[in-house]
Design goal:
The structure is a single chain. This protein is α/β, with parallel strands linked by helices. It contains eleven helices and 13 strands. Strands 2-9-7-6-5 form a five-stranded mixed β-sheet, sandwiched between helices.
Length: about 375
């Protein structure tokens, strides 16, 4: 629903509700300054949530104790409007940091959203959670298991302030599969690690990042091979959503997979991959379609400054050397792979990043004005 929080008449309040009891799992931001919505949601029983209420246009972050009071009121109002017990809905807010929620308008929006809940409301929910996103992100997926087919739905937002470590990033996944809370939490953490934790748009961590997974299926819980296959599907879907965020990076024209191998260990490879992928110099070169290998070389050296030692540096773009035949065509592709070799061990890592161009500066310089 549109409650006026965005100021442009676009939808800015959404609700996602399970009609029956559900298992749930949460992963949220490691920021030392989390938003009020994150702080409030952490007080709830994370394994038995029934849904979420979300607003866009205002992050309700850096708003002090009153912000937490407002987040609680938002959650309790939404639960009451949907006929659910107090504390059964997570709360998420995304948008401008440092501004209070306009509670009168928000309450009206929440009441309207609750009244409009319907089985076909998924696309509207996806629109309501957007901020600088160029397009809604989500979909519906069907997973065939020996015991029958299960459905998995997803909705997410994120285009800037993306560098999750669990992006601004919100993601919600629902399924009619029956999964025990502990199993769902393990699968959710693995999905976050392989998906959302592999991306960066601008190297900036949001105070609002949240991934919520709800499973409300009937029948016996998934176990053994069925549970493993479900966990694989959840990882694939979260990775898909994460890559959509990179492609939708504010002002971005390229999405690049940075792959590092030959590191002393995986932790070192991770450090180098992020050093390269989050370098402003490297990302502007990607935007300019310039295979400027010196910038990558510099970023690798900086990432390894603390450990030193021999490095047998190598670099290819989709298998092509920076000065090789066809490099201009590779650099013009909307998606490609940057392969960085260190030649000093067996450690590997990958991150997915977007470029850095004029569009990103324009979006963020004019974000409030």
């Amino acid at each position: 629903m549109a409650a006026g929080l965005k100021g442009d008449g676009l939808p800015d309040v959404g609700m996602l509700v399970s009609d029956r009891a559900a298992s749930s799992a949460l992963a949220d931001t490691p920021s030392a300054l989390p938003s009020a919505a994150v702080i409030y949601t952490r007080t709830l029983h994370a394994g038995s949530l029934r849904g979420v209420v979300v607003n866009s246009g205002c992050a309700n972050a850096a708003t002090g104790d009153q912000g937490i009071v407002d987040a609680r009121a938002m959650g309790e109002t939404a639960a009451a409007a949907a006929g659910l017990p107090v504390g059964s809905l997570a709360v998420c807010s995304t948008g401008v940091i440092g501004e209070r929620l306009p509670m009168k308008a928000l309450t009206a929006g929440v009441d309207a959203a609750a009244a409009a809940l319907s089985p076909d409301g998924g696309p509207a929910f996806g629109e309501a959670i957007r901020t600088t996103d160029a397009f809604a992100k989500g979909g519906t997926f069907r997973l065939a298991l020996p015991g029958g087919e299960v459905t998995i739905g997803a909705a997410a937002k994120g285009a800037g302030m993306i560098r999750p470590d669990m992006a601004t990033m919100l993601a919600y996944v629902t399924t009619d599969a029956c999964v025990l809370p502990d199993d769902l939490l393990a699968a959710t953490r693995a999905a976050a690690a392989d998906g959302f934790n592999r991306i960066s748009v601008d190297g900036q961590m949001s105070p609002s990042d949240t991934l919520l997974v709800l499973a409300n299926g009937e029948g016996p819980p998934l176990v053994g091979a069925d549970l493993a296959r479900f966990a694989d599907a959840l990882r694939a879907i979260c990775r898909y959503l994460a890559l959509l965020m990179v492609k939708d990076g504010e002002g971005a024209e390229h999405a690049v997979r940075v792959v590092v191998d030959g590191a002393l260990d995986d932790a070192e490879a991770e450090r180098v991959a992020r050093g390269v992928g989050e370098s402003a110099l490297v990302r502007t070169a990607i935007y300019g379609r310039d295979a400027n290998w010196g910038r990558v070389h510099q970023a690798v050296g900086q990432a390894l400054a603390a450990t030193g030692g021999h490095v047998a540096f190598s670099l290819r773009f989709d298998g092509v050397l920076p000065d090789g035949q066809g490099i201009d065509e590779v650099m013009s592709r909307p998606e490609y792979e940057m392969q960085v070799g260190l030649g000093r061990g067996t450690g590997t890592a990958e991150v997915f990043v977007s470029d850095l161009g004029h569009g990103y500066v324009s979006v963020n310089a004019d974000y409030r004005t």
